[in-house]
Design a protein that fits this description.
This protein has a single domain, classed as Spore Coat Polysaccharide Biosynthesis Protein SpsA, Chain A (Alpha-Beta Complex). The two termini are 28 Å apart. The longest helix has 14 residues, at 235-248. By secondary structure, the chain is an alpha/beta fold. The protein has helices spanning 30-39, 54-62, 77-84, 105-117, 188-195, 201-206, 210-215, 235-248, and strands at residues 4-10, 24-25, 28-29, 44-51, 66-69, 92-95, 123-129, 143-146, 152-156, 178-187, 220-224. The radius of gyration is 18 Å and the shape is globular. The protein is built from eight helices and eleven strands.
Length: 257
Amino acid sequence: MSMIVGVIPARWGSTRFPGKSLHPLLGRPLIQWVIERAQQARTLARVLVATDDERIRAAAQQAGAEAVLTSPHHPSGTDRIAEAMRGIPADVVINIQGDEPLIEPALIDELGRTLAEDAAWDMATAAAPLADPRDADQPSVVKVVCGRDGQALYFSRAAIPFLREKGTGTEGRDGLYYRHIGVYAYRRAFLERLVATPPCALEQAEKLEQLRALWLGGRMKVLEVRDTGLGVDTPQDAARVEAEMRKRGLGGTGASG
């Protein structure tokens, strides 16, 4: 049986929102909400927080998670996760973004099972149909195209696929575009290969680390979901997430959902 470990990378120096891991949502730190959602996943043998800051480590431990201090110089969360996993046994590692306080535990489980049950995949991630086809033209919205078996073919900030014959407005675009959701499961050996490889030209051009995995020939399964999640990149995002939490009746002494 595969051992699956969830790791939450959380650095202090976010460019747009420094210290956001400790920003309170309904009175509790953002990182605590993420931890509690991850702990609801049934497939995870352990949940770790990988951070470069003692304050975040203390908050994670107070929330009941294992926490590992890592180098502050990592270029990505993936590198931080790889350091945190040194010496820890695991067959599958799941990268759970530290700014997704409403991540679905069922998605974490599905990602883990995808790799545990099918040796053909090196990685797994998720995508959702674009709710608004106009978002296809937004560089901040990462799109993915897949093969018939769900294998990722390419990720881009551009509108992929490109419509050669465009009508007026957005007709013909519904159901064609998928927004990538940044949660990943890695087979342990592929994770180590990934972080040992320098960024490729495609990754540097698009600023998308997952392109390195495709450039290496990695087979990445994309799970289709409907919920795009709510990430916290800015203080304004935090206010929107809090409003959604209130709508869902979250709060009190423990997370629910």
